[in-house]
Design goal:
This protein has 3 helices and 4 strands, in the order βαββααβ. By secondary structure, the protein is α+β, with helices and mostly antiparallel strands. The chain has a single domain, classed as 2-Layer Sandwich (Alpha-Beta Plaits), CATH 3.30.70.1060.
């Protein structure tokens, strides 16, 4: 299973000047390590971030544990807003026509 984790900066508790280039680079390097370990497979960030996690983490608790090691999270400067499990969307497969019996129709 994959997860998308939406995060945000805690700007109500930390002002913009505290998000220094050095801190941001440390955070990016930590996410790079998660990527190299195969845990994060996609990531996008500006002042908040979205990370897509691979099947390796079996639960949202494991994701929370992975995030706790990130510098901005450990400092309380960033928080996870939502952890959403991603499932296959049924619209991405061919439509199956069900007959009156409720079984897929055989095509000749």
């Amino acid at each position: 299973m994959q997860f998308i984790v939406l995060t945000r900066r805690r700007t109500e508790a930390f002002h913009q000047g505290e998000y220094t280039p050095k801190r941001l680079e440390a955070e990016a390097e930590a996410v790079r390590r998660l990527y190299m370990d195969g845990l994060v497979i996609r990531s996008g960030a500006v002042t908040s971030a979205a990370h897509v996690f691979s099947r390796k983490p079996p639960s949202s608790e494991d994701l929370t544990a992975a995030f706790s090691g990130l510098p901005a999270f450990a400092a309380g400067m960033q928080e996870a807003v939502a952890i959403v499990p991603l499932r296959p969307y049924r619209g991405f497969s061919p439509r199956v026509d069900l007959g009156e019996s409720g079984s897929p129709l055989q095509q000749d």
